[in-house]
Amino acid sequence: MQRANLVTTEEVLVEVLTFFSTYGYQMRQRIVKLVEGIIINPNVRVIQQTHESFMDGLNLYKNRPDKGYSLTDCISMQTMRQLDIIEVLTNDKHFTQEGFIILLQEE
Fold first, then answer.
1. Which residues are in the PIN domain (predicted)?
2. Which of 40, 37, 15, 19 is closest to 28 using CA atoms?
3. For a FRET experiment, which of 2, 58, 65, 102 has its CA 20 to 30 Å from that of 95?
4. Whole-structure pTM value
């Protein structure tokens, strides 16, 4: 298998679709096309949702009651650990709290 340039999870794609769910028909269609494009892009590896990934994320969520992590973030963090990924394409400071390097720095 060829190494992917980008890695995401189906949970992240669900979060994107959920965010845009109230933006009307045209925006929903654009986002669906975007997500479908991500899924078929050979340079993007989309990790499938599983009961195990849910439980791994839930475990981190449970063990960080002092943090404002979303469950999707927890699943992403656990997936990144399993795949030895340290850089994340986000500006979410929660990832730095877990030792990851965020690539979208706010100025």
1. 4-96
2. 19
3. 2
4. 0.88
